[in-house]
Amino acid sequence: MTDFLLVLASGITAGSSYALMGLAMVIIYKTSGVVNFAQGEMGLISAYITFMMLDYYGFGYLATFFWAFVFALFLGALMEFAILRRAKDPSVLGLMIITIGLEMILLGLVSWKFGADPKDMPFPISPFESIELVENIYISVLEVLTIGVATAVMLILFLFFRFSKLGVAMKAVQQNPMAAKLMGISTNRVLMITWSISSFVGALAALLIAPANMGPFMMWDPLLKGFAAAVMGGMTSLGGAVVGAYIVGIIENFFGTFISIEFKSVVAFSIIVIMLCVKPSGLFGRHYVKKV
Amino acid sequence: MSEILSVHNIETYYDLIYAVRGVSFSLTEGEITTILGTNGAGKSTILKTIMGLIDDQPEKGVIQFEGKKINHKDTEKIVKMGISYVPEGRQVFEELTVMENLQMGAYLRRDRGGINKDIQRIYDYFPILKEREKQWAGTLSGGEQQMLAISRALMSKPKLLFLDEPSLGLSPLLVKEIFEIIKLINQEGVTILLVEQNANMALGIAKKGLILESGRFVLNGSSKELLKNKDVQEFYLGIKTEVATKGYQRWKRKKSWR
After folding, report:
1. Cβ-Cβ contacts under 8 Å, B111 against chain A
2. A219 in a structural domain
3. Is B76–A179 a contact, with Cβ atoms under 8 angstroms apart?
């Protein structure tokens, strides 16, 4: 029983960082229909900038995190403005391939500047501090923080897309860019803001992952799992992505513990494939089918 | 009455296709003007060119709105100046509710009280939209979507409204209803440019008409004149004038402008 609860707890905590990545991907998908494969590496850069400020230059935590988030917002806007907007006659597929290219470039930059060896990220909360939930079930403070942040982000985003004018405009841009322009919505600016927000959420995820495991490849796993979670939720549903992330996290950990640790990573891939075959609209996706 | 929009000799290309071949016209404030033409004549292209929806077009010519040049401006800015466009085929936001669609129409406005008042006014025009308020726009019928598209365009309080084939795919009864509303909107002071294939209905409510064929205007005049014109009757209204005693037409009328 303890085993079971322990695995469940680690599944949930793993799920939280996947949830943040999934949310970041859903935001961009919701407005532009593009799956952003550079998401992980954008977060990675933000995490390394934080690391650089803390470790090399000795800034305080507060100032560092503030500037790291400003940087993340700026990075997202820059990606959209400088690269994706320049694409001529953009198709969704073309833009997605651009994001794959960006991912490689950003990864290369980080490895070149900081080296491929793992780093120790200074962080106000040690990843080894933990609290006892139930008897013999420990959960680290960092993990509690991750769960809290993921929940808060999801809630804020949900309210934003549901009730704010800008949030609704973002959905409008995705559904019909031409009509959105005719409403006076500046589609370019909306896309830029989307990328900013998404980059910010990705940076949050990266910063929460970094203290436990920091290296150039640290975001690959969360990106893939976050993508699986987003697919599970139907790509457009924020809640779906979060629930999907927890399901992925839990299934994966049970699979790893009780069946095969070597094939643990395959679980996420299998989930993507199965979901796309069986129910491409996701668990909660209620995509409107166009009348012909 | 003053000119609200003047278009001078514009030419539009879709890559190599020469779609609008030097078109000039002007709209008088407070009037309904209609552009008639067959499929592919370039009617929608003219509207899209004016709205700045076609990149880098018009190739040549000048478009002036209230005396200010608007070619090569961003669509958002043109909308802000007071032109609203109801595109062909409705183009509502399918996965937003009716209410959200209307709110998006008022995206550029900041006066919340005024927006709510206008939404109420639109519900008076189209009571069915109030019933459907919380439904996704994509689940509405074609006629309801057309009503929504027109309402959404009105939410920005335009001075000039472009309507691109509002009768497309609607039953005659609905078309009549929509046209009544168009008349009502015009009476409240909005200048309207109506692009139509349904010449009979369009000339019925418009003050002036223009006839477009393969990218050029071939005829213009007041609606009354156009309704009397033999060519228009034959080719746009489908009135056969010459019936032989044996019951078939002995000769085919040629358009006088060719």
Report:
1. none
2. yes
3. no
Strands B160-164 and B60-65: unpaired
> How does pLDDT run across A249-284, given as a tens digit for each residue?
888 888 888 887 777 778 888 888 888 887 777 776
CATH number of the domain encompassing residue A112? 1.10.3470
Q: Under an 8 A CB cutoff, do A184 and B91 touch?
A: no
Domain boundaries, chain B: 3-235
Q: What is the mean pLDDT of residues A284-291?
A: 53
In a domain, A213, yes or no: yes
CB contacts, 8 Å: B84 with chain A: 182
- CB-closest option in B76, B96, B156 to A172: B96
Sequence-distant (6+) residues with CB within 8 A of B159 are: B4, B29, B66, B82, B83, B190, B191
The token pair that represents A192 in the structure block:
């830029």
Domain enclosing residue A95, as ranges? 2-278
pLDDT tens figures, B74-133: 888 888 888 888 888 888 888 888 888 888 888 888 888 888 888 888 888 888 888 888
Q: Is residue A288 part of a domain?
A: no
How many other C-beta atoms can be found within 10 angstroms of the C-beta atom of residue A250?
18
- Domain at B3-235: CATH code: 3.40.50.300
Quick check: helix, strand or coil at residue A198?
A: helix
- The verdict on a CB contact (< 8 Å) between B93 and A171 is yes
State whether residue A166 sits within 8 Å of chain B by CB. Answer: no
